[in-house]
Amino acid sequence: MLTTVKIISRSVNAAMRNRNVRLSLFLILGIILISTILLSINVVGKTHDYSIGDIAREDVRVSGDIIFEIESETRAEKGRIAESIPLVFDRDQSVLVESLRFVDILFDYVDMTLREIPPTGSEDRTFQLITLKSKLPKYPQYDDRILYELLRIQNAPDIRQSIKKIIIHILDNGVMPAPYSNPLSIANRNVTIKIINSPQVTDEISRGLEELKTLAEINAEIPGLVNGMLQQKSREERTLIISATRTLVKPNLFFNAEETKRRIDEATRNIKPVTGVLKKGQTIVREGDTITTETLNKIAILNSYASTTRINYILGVLLLQVSFLFVFGYFLLEYHSRLLPDRKAPLIIFSIVVLFIFYTFFLSRTDNILNSTIIFALYLPIAAVTMIIATLFNIFIALIIGLYLIFFAFVVSNGSLVVIVTAFSSAILGVFVLTDVERRTDFLRGGLILGIINSVVVVGVCLMEEYTLYDTLRNIELSLANGIINSILVLGVFPLFENLFSITTKFNLLELSDLNAPIFRRMLIKAPGTYNHSLMVANMAEAACKEIGANYLLARVGGYYHDIGKIEDAGIYIENKITDKRAKSLSPLEYSRLIISHVDKGVALSRKSRLPEQVESFIREHHGTTMMTFFYHQALEEADASGETGSVNKAEFQYPGPKPQSRETAVVMLADAVEAASRSLQDPTNVKLESLVKKIIYNKLNDDEFEYSDLTISDLNKIQRAFMRILNGIFHTRIEYPENEEVQKLEEKVNVKEGDN
Questions:
Q1: Which of 717, 524, 708 is nearest to 617 (CA)?
Q2: Residue 409 scores a pLDDT above 90
Q3: Phi first, then psi: what are they for 207, rounded to 5°?
């Protein structure tokens, strides 16, 4: 794990040392900042100050879809749900237990008193009553008449059970202390009775609110209840039971406001707000119309959305863009040399993206355009952007930028599916329709393809959205026009980029690959060996770059121009058969310096010829920091023979660099070395050639010449195979044709007949 982190850290540090990478990351942050500000403005609209009866000073339109809550309807819905929730009452079972306990206490003390003081006369009754009252608890307060009657009646056990029966009946139904006062302002008439303080009974009972009785109502109903349930009892006994029951019955039913509210809150918690929608482009009021209550309410909704920035929305947009930054940053750090082959690339891409962002933003603010999301999507030049970037740089970075622009268009259009589908097809097609462009007319062909395929996409969208036939045909026309206009736009913009930024395009490279150019005619005359060598290097580099997915056209042109610095002193180079007389008189160091100078001379000639910087990089980098081993060895031998130790400076025999900064320049370096070395082989067989190619690749790799080129081991293997195909085509085994004299001698020996077939 630690090793992986170290490797990643080194890679990041190495990439961050690249000026292009640092500039790109800075510009990406700029794009994110600009787009976030614009998207924030997109959700913060203009406010309108009106009152009822005012005359509208302008058309008031909705700038974007607004979903708002209709609070009155939401409240009404919550009230309806709340009223359907039964009121909760607690029936305290301990009240019944306590009441029955007091019944038993009462009769137990009556029996105890009767045993202690047997009745013999009226005087004894009075003494019994006094004794009984002294024994009974103070609560409840028993009426003397009740106690007197209980002492007088003989069938007390039967009376006890009757009183219990009546109390149980009353308290099972529940007794409220007072009428329900509706503390929650709920008009519900349904009741749920919860049994509390009872380990045996946990069920809930449903009742109507009108069924619940207060203590006062129960006391009034007790006589009728007793007379109905205890008809067999005497009038005197029923009177006693009524009085005792009234004394012992206590309220046991209490409204539980907290539980009722909890149940109501639980039921209404998940109720979705009742919403209304103001559609983008909808006219709330027209200029000159009178402001009504209805229009004022809608304007108030607009103002509420316009006056506050939707923080969650902006944070969401920002997070999505930061995630894009991480994705792009990763590929940038990992493959920066491939993504940004030109120093001007970051600025160019930044300019294109910012222009698109501003254009899309202002287009989204145009109400007439956005009445149709399809029309909005077809007005977006997203295909032109991806076409330009793919042609100027590469497909991969065009795809990344295209995906980001799709995201921006999607957000600006308030999440329109039509926009994202149409923009996606345009962006992807824009990348791939021009992959093999070699002529400027190919842009028109790509635009036509783009228009046709987009038309198919638009027809699908129109069918889904149930457009009329007229609108569908109109959108097809716009799709075709969109493709053609995008291609014309790209065709017109290309010369601007070529001249304004001095950037190398495919068309520049095709023009530079013309071998009839004056510089190549001069090379052919003055340095024919170098000319042929350059052609071979170009062919080998092109084949290798095709294999590894690099810019093969750039590599071919770089191969043509990499040795133009040899034209001036062509006669000192072995491929030109060393016709320069200086060659014999120069020391190894002087010869080495003269050969190394062809790089500087080539750069000077490049600038004189106004070659693009990308092409010039092949001249500077095709030798990297390699050693002039042949002359260095000669210098060492001479120093050793003369005894001049310490007279040889190794650095003077080394090319100053820089090392190849791209895959293309690294491939040309290898092709240059392999082609030159292959000419020195005696009897070049396939085995010898393969050994030579492998050795050169290994030596360059071992010398860290590919340190900044982004070449992989897999790439090197593919390059080797590509080189071998070219070399085998050059050094293939040929038939050794006989001399004419030999043929004639054999003809005489075999007496060859001459005549008609």
A1: 708
A2: no
A3: -140, 165
**Residues 530 and 639: beta-carbon distance below 8 Å:** no
Q: Are residues 114 and 214 in the same domain?
A: yes
Within-domain flag for 284? yes
Q: What is the DSSP letter of 566?
A: G
Residue 592: per-residue pLDDT:
85
Residues 341 and 252 in one domain: no
Which DSSP string do the residues of 14-61 spell out, in sequence order?
A: HHHTSHHHHHHHHHHHHHHHHHHHHHHHHHS-------TTPBPSS-EE
Pairing of strands 190-196, 87-92: parallel
Task: Give tens-digit pLDDT for 585-602.
Answer: 788 888 888 888 899 999
Per the structure, the count of domains in the chain is: 4
Q: Residue type at 556?
A: R
Residue that is written with structure tokens 């990344």 in the block = 400
- Shared domain for 463 and 515, answered yes or no, is no
Across the range 137-166, mean pLDDT stands at 76
Q: Is residue 313 part of a domain?
A: no
In a domain, 75, yes or no: no
For residues 102 and 51, membership in a common domain is answered with no
Question: In this structure, are residues 264 and 85 in contact, taking their beta carbons and an 8 Å threshold?
Answer: yes
Whether residue 156 is found in the same domain as residue 213:
yes
Domain of residue 547, residue span: 508-730
Q: Find, among 357, 479, 349, the residue nearest to 425 by Cα.
A: 479
Question: Is 483 found in the same domain as 584?
Answer: no
Is the distance from CB of 154 to CB of 52 less than 8 angstroms?
A: no
CA distances from 356 to 56, 319, 464 (A): 35, 21, 28
Assess whether the previous peptide bond of 119 is cis (omega < 30° from 0): no
Which is more confident, 62 or 716? 716
pLDDT value of position 1: 47
Residue 666 has a CB neighbour count (10 Å cut-off) of: 31
- Helices 713-730 and 686-702: crossing angle in degrees, nearest 10, is 150
Note whether 297 and 349 are same-domain residues.
no
Q: In Å, how far from its chain's centre is CA 687? A: 52
Same domain as 575, residue 486:
no
Question: Coil, strand, or helix at residue 61?
Answer: strand
Any idea of the CA torsion for 262, 264, 269, 274, to the nearest 10 degrees? -160
